[in-house]
Specification:
- It is a single chain.
- With 748 residues, the protein is an alpha+beta fold.
- It contains 24 helices and ten strands.
- The protein has helices at residues 6-24, 42-53, 74-87, 126-134, 163-179, 190-224, 227-250, 261-286, 291-318, 326-354, 359-362, 371-385, 387-405, 423-434, 456-469, 482-492, 507-520, 523-528, 547-564, 577-611, 614-638, 644-673, 678-705, 713-744; strands at residues 60-66, 93-97, 103-107, 112-116, 150-157, 185-189, 439-447, 476-480, 535-542, 570-575.
- The protein starts with 5 loop residues before the first helix and ends with a helix.
- The relative contact order is 0.12.
Amino acid sequence: MIYRFRNYILLFFILLSIGCIFASTQVYFKYDFEQFFPKGDKSLDEYYLFMEKFEGDDDFLLVGLKREKGIFDSLFLNRVDILTDQCAQLPYIKRSYSITKHKNIIKTPFAFLPLDAVHLDDPSRLKRDSVKIVNDPRLAGNIVSKDAKTLVIALKTLDSLKQFEVQILMDSANSLLAKSPFDEYHFLGKPNFQTELVRLQIKEFIISTAIAAILVTIVFSLIFRRFIGVIIALVSVLLCMIVFMGFIGGFRIPLDIMSALYPILMIIVGVSDVVHFSTKYVEELAKGKSRKDSIKITIREIGIATFLTSFTTAIGFATLLTSMITPIKRFGIVAAIGVILAYLVVMVFTTSILCRFKLEQINAPVQRKDIWKAILEWFYRLGIDYRNRCIAGVLLVIIICAWGISKITTDVHIYDSLPRNEKLTTDFAFFEKELAGFRPFEIAAKAQGDYSITDYEVIREIDKVESYLNKFEDKINGIQSVTTVYKSLNRAYNGDQREYYVLPEKRSQFDRFQRQIDKLKIEEFDVLVSKDKKYGRLSASILDIGSDTIKVLMNKIDKYIAENTDTSIVQFFQTGTGVIVDKNQEYVRNSLISGMSIAFLAVSFIMALLFRNLKMVVISLIPNLIPLFICGAILGFSGIELNAPTSIIFAISFGIAVDDTIHFLSKFKLERDKGIAIEDALYLTFMETGKAIMITTVILFFGFLVLLFSKNPATFNVGLLISLTLFSALIADLIVIPIMIRLWIKEK
């Protein structure tokens, strides 16, 4: 049918490619931090409820400025003050704040008197100001470093900025700082993360596509050694990419942090299919068959096997739908569809082009000894001559892998996931070292019964928790809560003396402060207390000490709250973006196990339908378990954290690795169905299908190694681990499968 309608097929794909090129112009990049929240989790519901009551905990942009000789210099601080005013005029900024704008309140007999924390007009008072500021728990470690060498200009952004708005803000901020007199400046906050990560996504998408294209050209040149053969293969892979990008653009699917993997996946999956189809077609032509007969045999034998391999690969990706993280789920389903699209393109388009050419036009004759055949002969003899040693070696590898798997860690650090050698990462490290860090820390307080969050009894309970948090000053910084307002008023009533930054001891004093708060309409109060006065917040920043360490710390805090606070008055629960993201680590493990279980069951079912033999099903699965063990061992021994992006390695590896097994066993079954003896069938499988799976594995290996050019550690790790896993899968197929067949399958 394909031979008969080859001209119509060519016309169809020309029109399809034009449509897909147009649709691909709609492709866009997006980075949304909230997409990494685990959907359906109870904590997420609590977080959204919390955000309804308060403003977001990550809608900010910080500008860090450092002066080695100390920030308390008149010229430096005046420049900071000017810059703070300029920052307030940036697009999408609600307000700006720095130490030069901070006011200390003192109660006089007549009224409250605001006093500048920094006396810019009187340099002689700067030393006295510096002493007060570095000893003020509201400021030190928060907007001023404890060594007084660094300060922060804090910018509050509008809520939920879109990507183009974030880009405008960061372009304006960078332009402003570049013109400022400050040689060194650092950004921290969601707008900076969004802008820089999207920029890096676009850059790496283009680079990985270009490098992969060069690699594929070299590989095809070595395989076919004829211009027409190389062009057919390259056009086929290019068409796979065009159709895939048309699908992405047509359905307006955003490209996110996982998108750098798409070009690699589509190119190497397309290459794998092209190699299998073209290799079989060339083999049949070499046997003297006509082009029409050769393409029919190729479609009948390779078409079915390649469909099964594409289907199992798609299943591997589709198992990522078990994840509760939106980018992982989207990557899984888009990649699965991409694999099927690549198969359809190669199955229909490539075969319709191949059948137009004779053998000598596509493939040059081999003038030297076939190195592939020599390698396959060695593997074939290895399983016969050294069978027991091979079995012992495999068992030893499994034992070592079990040890390595036991060392896998989920202690995720934000710094380790940031792109290497980028200013974004340098800036993050700067704030971690000099100030309070980036990771938001939130505890919500909910007044119970008829209590209001501003009642004296509730405030005392909140103060207990805040005092306990202050014991972890090496990890938690910049603690703010509703008690801050009352403590500041107490200090104001006592001459702004540091020792009075505590809650008033007497109820009457507290009630007087409450009346003052109602009159003054303090801005801080509205940020820390909900409008209905049923919720309050304890906000802080926690250093990047690792998710496991943070979990231990959070459990300690929860235990203290349960044992030392009166839950009939007020109840506390942890919330905020930090807590939600940490939940991902729990779901990574759960979704990994459930996803792989589904993949194994699906592949087992396919193998059962294909071979209708339980022994063959087991033979097909065991060699694909070994590479996964090896992948887990590498994770454990290398100390690579098992986080959300890294967890996809197992699904991808299994989905692709099982392809070679299907091709190998399908060929073996075809030969056995012809009545050929087991050993002869194995030899023929090695010599014919073995070459194709070795070539495709080499392509896959170097294709994924392209990801080593990525600055994103997650992408780098995916490329390295999948490459090594697929290489080990090939070795397992060529050693373990033949040995198991010889041991378990007997002549009828």
